[in-house]
């Protein structure tokens, strides 16, 4: 209807008359949807130039609690490969909401939208890499800015990703959240063989070991992986997160906790902080 009545789009058509849309079309749709969501009439929007639409969209993001519109703006900046605008929008959200709330309400929905768009072939890996690198940079900078925590007076956590797992953003956010709550973290990062954790547990004596399973292990290797992890760390709470860990057939050993949402993890971290009157 927007195309036929208002001429907002002029998609290319295939030989069989099927519409195809380019990145510019998608950017325009995101911007128009943002303005419509803020009460602008579509008939008025259709009369604006691209520059006027972009300017109007930027002015829409004065409301720190309008998360949906902030995600739309990030999507449009990503599709344009506009790193300066991406950085500006993220910094604005962080300044207004605080780092953790900005990631939960804006960063995570943004990443979820990227995942869906990548899955259906709307964006390519370069878009995802641009955003991932920028968010990773901000998480590491925010974590580096936190005060140091003594390992002798705090809960001790080990964070790692198993062999073949390279999706690090969720683990980096967990690292920040734990340190911000006064926990001590041994961050081991990506691609760590499970067998190496036995020596780590003996030396570091962690309260919990946490991993995020986004792409690995494969379904038939999931149960052996979890069983080996618990054998290597028998006296430690093992926390599993990520989409792979949600498989219904997975049998959880007694010392294992499975979390579905990042907010579940934050709640657990808060509970542990409350119970830290006695050192672990």
From TrEMBL:
<dbReference type="InterPro" id="IPR009061">
    <property type="entry name" value="DNA-bd_dom_put_sf"/>
</dbReference>
<dbReference type="InterPro" id="IPR006158">
    <property type="entry name" value="Cobalamin-bd"/>
</dbReference>
<dbReference type="InterPro" id="IPR003759">
    <property type="entry name" value="Cbl-bd_cap"/>
</dbReference>
<feature type="domain" description="B12-binding">
    <location>
        <begin position="154"/>
        <end position="279"/>
    </location>
</feature>
<dbReference type="GO" id="GO:0003677">
    <property type="term" value="F:DNA binding"/>
</dbReference>
<dbReference type="Pfam" id="PF13411">
    <property type="entry name" value="MerR_1"/>
</dbReference>
<dbReference type="Pfam" id="PF02607">
    <property type="entry name" value="B12-binding_2"/>
</dbReference>
<dbReference type="InterPro" id="IPR000551">
    <property type="entry name" value="MerR-type_HTH_dom"/>
</dbReference>
<dbReference type="GO" id="GO:0046872">
    <property type="term" value="F:metal ion binding"/>
</dbReference>
<dbReference type="InterPro" id="IPR036724">
    <property type="entry name" value="Cobalamin-bd_sf"/>
</dbReference>
<feature type="domain" description="HTH merR-type">
    <location>
        <begin position="1"/>
        <end position="51"/>
    </location>
</feature>
<dbReference type="GO" id="GO:0031419">
    <property type="term" value="F:cobalamin binding"/>
</dbReference>
<dbReference type="GO" id="GO:0006355">
    <property type="term" value="P:regulation of DNA-templated transcription"/>
</dbReference>
<dbReference type="InterPro" id="IPR036594">
    <property type="entry name" value="Meth_synthase_dom"/>
</dbReference>
<protein>
    <submittedName>
        <fullName>MerR HTH family regulatory protein</fullName>
    </submittedName>
</protein>
């Amino acid at each position: 209807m927007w195309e036929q009545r208002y001429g907002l789009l002029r998609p290319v058509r295939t030989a069989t008359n099927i519409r195809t849309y380019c990145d510019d079309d998608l950017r325009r749709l995101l911007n128009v949807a943002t303005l419509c969501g803020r009460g602008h009439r579509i008939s008025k929007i259709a009369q604006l130039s691209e520059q006027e639409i972009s300017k109007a969209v930027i002015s829409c993001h004065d409301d720190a609690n309008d998360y949906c519109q902030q995600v739309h703006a990030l999507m449009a900046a990503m599709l344009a490969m506009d790193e300066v605008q991406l950085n500006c929008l993220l910094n604005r959200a962080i300044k207004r909401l605080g780092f953790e709330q900005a990631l939960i309400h804006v960063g995570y929905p943004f990443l979820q939208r990227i995942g869906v768009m990548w899955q259906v072939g709307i964006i390519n890996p370069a878009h995802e890499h641009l955003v991932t690198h920028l968010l990773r940079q901000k998480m590491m900078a925010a974590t580096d800015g936190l005060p140091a925590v003594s390992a002798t007076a705090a809960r001790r956590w080990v964070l790692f990703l198993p062999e073949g797992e390279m999706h690090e953003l969720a683990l980096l956010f967990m690292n920040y959240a734990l340190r911000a709550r006064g926990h001590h973290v041994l961050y081991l990062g990506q691609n760590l063989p499970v067998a190496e954790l036995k020596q780590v547990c003996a030396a570091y004596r962690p309260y919990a070991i946490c991993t995020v399973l986004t792409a690995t292990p494969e379904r038939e290797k999931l149960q052996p992986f979890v069983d080996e992890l618990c054998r290597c760390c028998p006296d430690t709470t093992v926390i599993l997160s990520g989409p792979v860990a949600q498989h219904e057939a997975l049998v959880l050993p007694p010392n294992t906790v499975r979390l579905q949402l990042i907010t579940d993890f934050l709640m657990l971290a808060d509970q542990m902080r409350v119970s830290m009157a006695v050192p672990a």
